[in-house]
Amino acid sequence: MRTHLSFLFMSAALAISLSGCAGTAAAPSQRQLMLVANDEKQSWNDAGVVQLAPQGRDSVQLIDIGTDPLAPRSVGTLALDNTIAGPPTNLAITADERLALVANSLLVVEENGVRKQVPDNRLFVIDLAASPPKLIDTIVVGKQPSGLTINRAGTLALVANRADNSVSVLRIAGQKVNLIDTVAMGESVSHVRFTPDGRRALAAKFPNHKIALLDVDGEKVSYGKVDLAVGLWPYNVDVTPDGRLALTADNGNAGASDGQVDTVSVIDLEAVPPRVIDKVVVGDGPEGLVVSPTGKMAVALILRGSNAAKNAYFYNRNGSVVALRIDGKKVTRGNEVVVRGLPEGAVFSADGKYLYVGNFIDQDISILRVDGDTLVDTGKSFGLAGHPAAMRGRLTH
Fold first, then answer.
1. How, if at all, do strands 343-348 and 354-359 pair?
2. What is the distance between the alpha carbons of residues 196 and 189, in angstroms, rounded to a whole number?
3. Which residues of 82-112 are buried (b: 16+ CB within 10 A; e: fewer)?
4. Distance in angstroms (rounded) separating the CA atoms of residues 72 and 240
5. Which H or E element spans position 280?
6. Closest Cα partner for 213 from 196, 195, 197?
7. Phi/psi at 24 (nearest 5 deg)?
8. Of the candidates 26, 234, 263, 314, which lies 20 to 30 Å from 207 by C-alpha distance?
9. What is the dihedral of CA 199, 121, 188, 177, to 10 degrees?
10. What contacts 393, CB < 8 A, 6 or more positions away?
């Protein structure tokens, strides 16, 4: 009897133990989308001179990086125009992954047998909930729409129009997107980024080396002529999840490498008024810039002359990624990882454990891993349908 009771107790304990293990088992990974815009018109020859091909071969790819972070998979490709001209932020995905916006800044036209680029004014609206994802609308905005942003509520979007010196304001209601206002900026702006609370936005005044502050009250966006002087040629701007800091990628040479070191400027958004509190030297030609969803790291993508003339003293076959450690309001340079040719866009996984870097020249994505405050090359990459000019994951902050 004692033996029988002991067996029953042991069986019950084993069942409870197994039940507990099942309850704490890791949940299966879920799909997380990344949007990649491929430009098949622009390239560079050995002398570093731009070569233009005709329109018609560009694409936008949707890639799942959530199900298996080390083996991304393509879930759809749309034949949509796109261009590498401008910061790699001319696209965005809403926080609920139901809608995406993609701007095309330039078109290639041919006059008297000579190809040239002219400003476009189209913004594509993509239904991500459809299977496969599909284009559902095309909105006319300002000339040369470039960097853009969507608020966390998914109700408002802003688009920086470089050739029109303006920011377009768009209402998002479900899958319907409408242009409702245009904010004059007085000079060219390359990118614009909402703060996490949606009450403010920052616009990069690329040619005048400043960041403009925009106030957001509901659907009303206003520019009170408050500008912050940052580093030379700020192409890109991002914010931390807590809304305390903004970082800018100060390109240093109007969108290209020149062999000189350049900076990331650190803006204290809590100060009254907000102000630049530091500059971190990162390398030659930072362009891509993204803050991790954890708020503990940011990365700057360094061109390193990878599309320059091959006989230039600053030419390197490959670009790199520089880690930036964020501790409160202190930002310090971390390690640097060499990737491949002309890195443009970058996307963190939603948990901040992986970083995906688009290499324009090599038509692929390098996969890096975040180990504490250090970036580690996993040695894995993912081939693309074209040359990645821009990349964005779903909005996390």
1. antiparallel
2. 20
3. bbbbbbbbbbbbbeebbbbbbbbbbbbeeee
4. 26
5. strand 275-283
6. 195
7. -105, 5
8. 314
9. 0
10. 32, 33, 34, 35, 65, 93, 347, 348, 349, 350, 356
Q: Are 185 and 223 in contact (CB under 8 A)?
A: yes
d(CA 165, CA 156): 20
Residues of the chain with pLDDT under 50: 1-27
Nearest to 306 by CA among 288, 323, 291, 290: 288
User: Which residues fall within 8 angstroms of residue 37, CB to CB, at 6 or more apart?
Assistant: 58, 59, 60, 80, 82, 90, 91, 102, 388, 389, 390, 391
Whole-number Å distance between alpha carbons of 218 and 96: 20
State residue 28's pLDDT score. 55
Our measurement of the distance from residue 3's CA atom to the centroid of its chain's CA atoms, rounded to an integer in Å, reads 65
**What's the rounded Cα separation, in Å, for the pair 63 and 31?**
9
Give residues with Cβ within 8 angstroms of 122, minimum separation 6: 81, 103, 104, 138, 139, 140, 141, 145
Residue 108, both tokens: 């290639």
The SS3 of residue 239 is: strand
Question: pLDDT digits over 176-214, tens only?
Answer: 999 999 999 999 999 999 999 999 999 999 999 999 999
In 3D, which of 252, 332, 335, 343 has the Cα closest to residue 296?
332
Other beta carbons less than 10 A from residue 167's beta carbon: 28
Instruction: Please check whether residue 394 is in contact with residue 97, taking contact to mean a CB–CB distance below 8 angstroms.
Output: yes
How many Cβ atoms from other residues are within 10 Å of residue 375's Cβ?
21
Residue 151: CB atoms within 10 Å: 21
Rounded to whole angstroms, how far apart are CA atoms 327 and 308?
A: 35
> In whole angstroms, what is the distance from residue 361 CA to residue 205 CA?
27
Whether the model clears a pTM of 0.85, i.e. scores above it, the answer is yes
Tokens at residue 301, please? 């993508």
